[in-house]
Amino acid sequence: MMRSPVPKGRVRVLNDASPQNRDYILYWMTSFRRAKSNFALDRAIELAKQMKRPLLVLEALRVGYEFANDRLHTFVLEGMHDNERAFQDSAVKYLPYVERKVGEGKGLMEALVKRACIVVGDDWPCFFVPKMQQALAARIDCRFEVVDSNGLYPMHDTPRVFTTAHSFRVHLQKVLPAHLMQFPTEHPLSRLELPTFDAPLPKQWKFGLDVAVADLPIDHSVPAVPIPGGSAAAEKRLAHFISKILPTYADSRNEPELDGTSALSPYLHFGHLSTHQVFTEVVGTEKWSVEKLGPSIGGAKEGWWQLSPHAEGYLDQLVTWRELSFNMTSHRPDDYRSLDELPDYARETIAKHAKDVRKVTYTLKQLEEGRTHDRLWNAAMGQLRETGWFHNYLRMLWGKKIYEWSKSAADALHAMEYLMGKYSIDGRDPISYSGYFWILGRYDRAWGPEREVFGTLRYMSSDNTAKKLDVKKYMDRFAPENGSLF
Ligand SMILES: Cc1cc2nc3c(=O)[nH]c(=O)nc-3n(C[C@H](O)[C@H](O)[C@H](O)COP(=O)(O)OP(=O)(O)OC[C@H]3O[C@@H](n4cnc5c(N)ncnc54)[C@H](O)[C@@H]3O)c2cc1C
């Protein structure tokens, strides 16, 4: 694939301030936490070269955000250690910072900006990141650009918000080929030459990774899990996926008892791995090149890439479904969490059935502890609680049951946000919201027969799931104590 300058359509300027004639370019790495295949890093390097300035990369980890806990901190810190190694001996100065007390990092960005010509950030449209960046942009006196390195299709290439995966596929089949010619630099630090960083750093903050998670003021009730964080672990898992799982992905992806999917979502969420890297490896197994793309085929799921059904099935998740989530969150920053943004049929049927008697309801605590009457659901919750990740098919069932057992759609949404936000390494992501809102009817259609509580929302039952999939060992492992399925 051709390497090129950072495409203009991936860069947004957040304020009106001009570049300043000062000491360095500052890249504030918040979401694409990696030293390769990263358009934001490419842009920062591009500016450093143009302005003949050193490049400073700040990667920070706050303690005061919602859900900060041992699990998330450990995963992110492992990534920061990898980045420290990756930037070591390079022409770029890497500055890791971990907050020790809530609010301790306040003022750090402003202090670093005082000597910066331009600030570059990651354009990632979810959780607290956009608001934090906008707040900084309004306060500083130099230009602040954010760069989109989320996926193959730049989020702001179109103003359109897609309401179905099908319409998004139709669109992608027309416009994506041009973007497949523009990839981030695979190894941007290799043979890179920039002026040496020698500016003084503010003394008020203690930089470096010499911290113990146990000493930090975060939630210690959610322990670290064996999924290792960082780009090295991500690439190892990617290699395993390509050689062992991708060749049968279409058959294995719906089987919770198998290691049958990529399990790369935690790495994609924290930016330890890029979609471009994954895409390159997937298509590389079939000696694919962009010339092989078929003509637009009206949004059909398979056949456009001209790859095996396994690779096509995988790319439909990684590209169509994942980037559909980014389309929504980036274009509706204030509404993507709002029930008012559901399609008409979903809002109407939810309203019509709002007062239906729920046969059973559970408190958030009962859900969190996996103490429902439904053993398969408890197992799914057990996998999430214990491992920090769970299987897509069971996420669908998990969410549908939460809706069934909640007093309202708003309560169901709150429960999903809380449980995933707290326990899932890949939670708090644009995909989290397309998942929760899919449960409530987004990207879906009305289904009959109309039922109590669900109305015409798609219904799922644990009974059918247990008939369709092998889940016995799964339940024995993650919900050993409840005796029956219902
Ligand atoms: C209620 C609910 C909540 C969800 N919450 C999250 C979440 O917080 N974070 C998250 O990353 N995913 C979420 N998903 C989507 C999906 O379940 C996970 O992305 C997937 O299970 C991750 O496993 P994997 O990496 O092995 O996926 P693979 O099958 O290997 O798929 C490849 C990649 O495609 C993307 N992808 C897969 N399934 C979907 C999907 N349904 N929608 C959009 N993108 C998808 C992911 O980036 C994934 O890594 C949720 C789904 C539901 C139904």
From TrEMBL:
Parts of the chain that traverse the membrane: none
Keywords carried by this UniProt record: DNA damage, DNA repair, DNA-binding, FAD, Flavoprotein, Lyase
Family matches, as InterPro entries: Crypto/Photolyase_FAD-like_sf, Crypto/Photolyase_N_sf, DNA_photolyase_N, Photolyase_Class-2, Rossmann-like_a/b/a_fold
Single annotated GO MF: DNA binding
Coiled coil: none
Family the UniProt entry places it in: Belongs to the DNA photolyase class-2 family.
Protein name, UniProt field: Deoxyribodipyrimidine photo-lyase
UniProt GO BP: photoreactive repair
Annotated organism of origin: Archangium gephyra
Domain called Photolyase/cryptochrome alpha/beta: residue spans: 23-155
Cofactor(s) the protein requires to work: (6R)-5,10-methylene-5,6,7,8-tetrahydrofolate; FAD
Enzyme Commission code: 4.1.99.3
Catalysed reaction, written as an equation: cyclobutadipyrimidine (in DNA) = 2 pyrimidine residues (in DNA)
Domain of life from the UniProt record: Bacteria
